[in-house]
Amino acid sequence: MSESSIHDIDAYMSDLGVRARAAARALARATTAEKNRALLAIATRLDAARDQLAAANGRDLEAGAAKGLDAALLDRLELTPARIDAMIEGLRQIAALPDPIGAITDLDYRPSGIQVGRMRVPLGVVGIIYESRPNVTADAAALCLKSGNATVLRGGSEAFASNQAIAGCIHAGLEEVGLPADAVQVIATTDRAAVGAMITMPESIDVIIPRGGRGLIERISREARVPVIKHLDGICHVYIDAHADLDKAFAIALNAKTQRYGTCNTMETLLVDTAVAGQILPRLGAAFAERGVELRGCARTREQLPAALPASEADWDTEYLAPILSIRVVDGLDAAMDHIARHSSAHTESIVTEDYGRARRFLREVDSSSVMVNASTRFADGFEYGLGAEIGISTDKFHARGPVGLEGLTSLKFVVLGDGQVRG
Amino acid sequence: MSESSIHDIDAYMSDLGVRARAAARALARATTAEKNRALLAIATRLDAARDQLAAANGRDLEAGAAKGLDAALLDRLELTPARIDAMIEGLRQIAALPDPIGAITDLDYRPSGIQVGRMRVPLGVVGIIYESRPNVTADAAALCLKSGNATVLRGGSEAFASNQAIAGCIHAGLEEVGLPADAVQVIATTDRAAVGAMITMPESIDVIIPRGGRGLIERISREARVPVIKHLDGICHVYIDAHADLDKAFAIALNAKTQRYGTCNTMETLLVDTAVAGQILPRLGAAFAERGVELRGCARTREQLPAALPASEADWDTEYLAPILSIRVVDGLDAAMDHIARHSSAHTESIVTEDYGRARRFLREVDSSSVMVNASTRFADGFEYGLGAEIGISTDKFHARGPVGLEGLTSLKFVVLGDGQVRG
């Protein structure tokens, strides 16, 4: 459907929802082989359509430049040959992953004689709302397809032509292997009312995954009438304990902050036990200064690092996503965990210690989606964890927590095998 | 706090939320032994408080009778000695269940050298909204306590005195073992505004479980700003396949309908393959007639059972919760699964068949929280499934599906064990 032909958004979205629901039923029945063939067919179609993809993307880039979009946004929008390669490679990797659907676990006999187990099943229809990067269209559709879910995708208006071109390849690939094209629908209008409809259609969409800035995610969470897998801030902490191996502490703190600045699993606040502050802070301070990281510290930190700026209360609650680090000297494990409980966004925290009991307490008591001992917070992602792929990182506890791979897009139903049993 | 002293509901609820959040942190840290001691202490307190419980319940019953509550409601409201016994026994059983919290699963080495696993953790604060039965106060608090969650309970106004008396025993038991009394808070006002506040406090309450009629659950789901574990209708089906063992079919259909009429896992519609309708329907019809079950059938059913009333379209979508059964003759497995996809509430469906391939398809393709082969739908509950206890049955797919025991009140966080690893 061309954009100009969509006048009645509610009717368009309602029809799209009905078709998604029907496709979801077909997809839930699809075999592993069919789903994998579809993923590979889509990869082949994308490979063959490089010229069309580049042309469509060129139109988006031109329109974006004319609208005065900033350079960072235009960069995210661009489908370079390397990014098209990555999209194709991603599809092939997802085809190679094990199929979670249909697996039955814990099939046990009960005293009544029935066997009870749980079978992994798709959620149904997954709605994804994202901003500028057009490669999300293929990545998200592939994860949903592999996990047996139909998908409704709403990309950024600035990537409209690119997303529609990718959607064309996806539909061709699905139809080639006999799966319904409606299994992946990319909303063919930039009208914002489509998003409002999408997040309030529980009869057609089972879960919404927003990918984008905090503003987008908060607005969607507030207005949605459908469950949302949210990814809000990553205010991650490293705590250097009194019993830390200081060489490990040095390497981990440096890596957690400087390996990449703009990612959600980057350390934003360093906590240091007062017993080792004098030994580790000057060494870390020099290394951070060398890399141009601005330091903001509490009073005790600034005794060790006079060049650091004074940290304000707001610093402890800030996700910098930049070469800035707040540092606080604390009196032991409980003070560190109190700081984390108060200021963390519950994304990822790491303790550096050689003390068994403190490691054990930190693992148990810190309530974050990833809790680490002697490792860099930068490991918190689906690929490093072995999930094979990642559709997002959930900062919620309900349903999915932390990096969300294929399993996060599924549910478990009970299966009961009997031999004529009735209840007495 | 006495009810009359609560004037500002928002301030009361906000304070209660802050205290629940603080208690949740203490409870998440509590050991298995502490939680079990608390459960047993509460059981002992309830046992010692039988007179006070009976007196409080008597006041509720008197007020209810004066208000003209119907007999069924007054019956649900009554705390008979047997029901107090059951409450006490329930607490002891929950103390005896394994503690799900802290269990680490799937701890595997990754190529980077880190070990990644998942640890089961509490959800945090669970809000429960229920109607007349005061025993829910103890049952729900016990399940939440064992799973490390703080609880905010809002019972029916007609059970106010009974619930407060039970709450007194719970608080005394918690304090006796050194756990915070705020771990279980029973809202001390019958003002309906408290429910509105409770379902819109995501900062203090992590999930709402409504237990009651469809009207209550729909209203809460519509207005909640917090995830809801819902239990809507149970329109359950038994499908008698052409290859069924007809003796098993007879026993299962009879049990699924008549073992209890008012439960959500009772069969409401029987589907029969046309190939066996002539053999099984007259036999079943006689048995149902003997038990006073009203039959409503499609035209082909009524050829076999002329005494059956004609079924209307609305019958296929009705949860009778009564001695009424709708019956439809269908042309094979696909027609049966189509009927189920269109009319089931996705609670529980059972196929009766000796055909391996059809059993396998039914298990895979029917999208309900419980899918059975050759067993009565009446088995769909947490005790029969071996969950040990049940806080409700979820008709959603997100987070928890089907009977919800302790595990449904938990989440999984990632744990990472390293030895100084940093990301390259």
From TrEMBL, chains A, B:
Question: Per the record, what is one GO cellular component?
Answer: cytoplasm
Annotated source species? Marichromatium purpuratum 984
Q: What residues does the Aldehyde dehydrogenase domain cover?
A: 19-289, 316-380
Top-level taxon of origin: Bacteria
InterPro entries, sorted: Ald_DH/histidinol_DH, Ald_DH_C, Ald_DH_N, Aldehyde_DH_dom, G-glutamylP_reductase_CS, Glu-5-SA_DH, GPR_dom
Does the UniProt entry include the keyword Zinc-finger?
A: no
Tell me where it mainly resides. Answer: cytoplasm
This molecule's function is given as: Catalyzes the NADPH-dependent reduction of L-glutamate 5-phosphate into L-glutamate 5-semialdehyde and phosphate. The product spontaneously undergoes cyclization to form 1-pyrroline-5-carboxylate.
Which PANTHER family does this one have? DELTA-1-PYRROLINE-5-CARBOXYLATE SYNTHASE (PTHR11063:SF8), GLUTAMATE SEMIALDEHYDE DEHYDROGENASE (PTHR11063)
Lineage runs: Bacteria, Pseudomonadati, Pseudomonadota, Gammaproteobacteria, Chromatiales
Biological pathway: Amino-acid biosynthesis; L-proline biosynthesis; L-glutamate 5-semialdehyde from L-glutamate: step 2/2
Hey, which family's this protein in?
A: Belongs to the gamma-glutamyl phosphate reductase family.
One biological process term from GO is: L-proline biosynthetic process
Record-level Gene Ontology MF annotations: glutamate-5-semialdehyde dehydrogenase activity; NADP binding
Q: Which UniProt keywords apply?
A: Amino-acid biosynthesis, Cytoplasm, NADP, Oxidoreductase, Proline biosynthesis
Q: Which NCBIfam families match?
A: PRK00197.1 (NF001221), proA (TIGR00407)
Keyword Cell membrane among record annotations = no
Q: Top-level EC class, please?
A: oxidoreductase
Question: Where does it live in the cell?
Answer: Cytoplasm
PROSITE patterns the record matches: PROA
Annotated catalysed reactions: L-glutamate 5-semialdehyde + phosphate + NADP(+) = L-glutamyl 5-phosphate + NADPH + H(+)
The UniProt record lists the EC number as 1.2.1.41
The name of this protein is Gamma-glutamyl phosphate reductase
